[in-house]
Amino acid sequence: MDSHHFAGDLDEILLTEEQIHTRLAELARQIEADYAGENVLLVGVLKGAVMVMADLARELDMQVTMDWMAVSSYGSGTASSGVVRILKDLDSDLTGRKVLIVEDIIDSGLTLSWLISNLKSRGPESVEICALLRKPEAARVDIDVKYLGFDIPNKFVVGYGLDFDEKYRNLRSVGILAPRIYS
Ligand SMILES: O=P(O)(O)OC[C@H]1O[C@H](OP(=O)(O)OP(=O)(O)O)[C@H](O)[C@@H]1O
Ligand code: HPA
Ligand SMILES: [Mg+2]
């Protein structure tokens, strides 16, 4: 689907499909170098990370396994509740595994902060983070992100997996949602 179908709902396109794919390819090269010879377990955080996971995993020229977790802290609003719920847990045992969490966005950081300590308690060898987007001005906790796509302004964004009220996830680019849509 092309971005012009949503044009009236967006204030601005922040990242085009091409910019996203170029950056994911750069991150993939770093990940390949850092994990050479290892079997990495990519943990995608549903549902927002679906597009990042699909494109990053296919860009990686290495052996990986993939698993998924569903957590939710936003519901249908535009601000984090801070309360993280597991909607679907991993199928894999993390004991001794090298885990790379794949996320679409670090906003307040509350979701990842909670997720990191949750996954670290399961005996993995390592837990690192790959996130496409981060909002530095929105941080409520400090997250050590090893592979970061882009820092973005503190505006509510949609597209490339990111939703407002479950919509806009299928937009190929990332754009700033017009405030009139949610206010
Ligand atoms: O840093 P934070 O403030 O915690 O926000 C980031 C999280 O919020 C979104 O998920 P959401 O709970 O909306 O679920 P979704 O992925 O299904 O949209 C996003 O995908 C991240 O997981
Ligand atoms: O800016 C955002 N857009 C969509 N979902 C989100 N989840 C956290 N921040 C955002
Ligand atoms: Mg969401």
Automatic annotation (TrEMBL):
Pathway: Purine metabolism; GMP biosynthesis via salvage pathway; GMP from guanine: step 1/1; Purine metabolism; IMP biosynthesis via salvage pathway; IMP from hypoxanthine: step 1/1. It is found in: Cytoplasm. GO terms for cellular component: cytosol. Keywords: Cytoplasm, Glycosyltransferase, Magnesium, Metal-binding, Nucleotide-binding, Purine salvage, Transferase. It holds the Pfam family Pribosyltran. Its main location: cytoplasm. GO terms for biological process: GMP salvage; guanine salvage; hypoxanthine metabolic process; IMP salvage; purine ribonucleoside salvage. Gene3D superfamilies: 3.40.50.2020. InterPro entries: HGPRT, Hxn_phspho_trans, PRTase-like, PRTase_dom. Its cofactor is Mg(2+). Residues 18-164 form the Phosphoribosyltransferase domain. Its EC number is 2.4.2.8. GO terms for molecular function: guanine phosphoribosyltransferase activity; hypoxanthine phosphoribosyltransferase activity; magnesium ion binding; nucleotide binding. It catalyses: GMP + diphosphate = guanine + 5-phospho-alpha-D-ribose 1-diphosphate; IMP + diphosphate = hypoxanthine + 5-phospho-alpha-D-ribose 1-diphosphate. It is an enzyme of class 2 (transferase). PANTHER family: HYPOXANTHINE PHOSPHORIBOSYLTRANSFERASE, HYPOXANTHINE-GUANINE PHOSPHORIBOSYLTRANSFERASE. Belongs to the purine/pyrimidine phosphoribosyltransferase family. This is Hypoxanthine phosphoribosyltransferase.
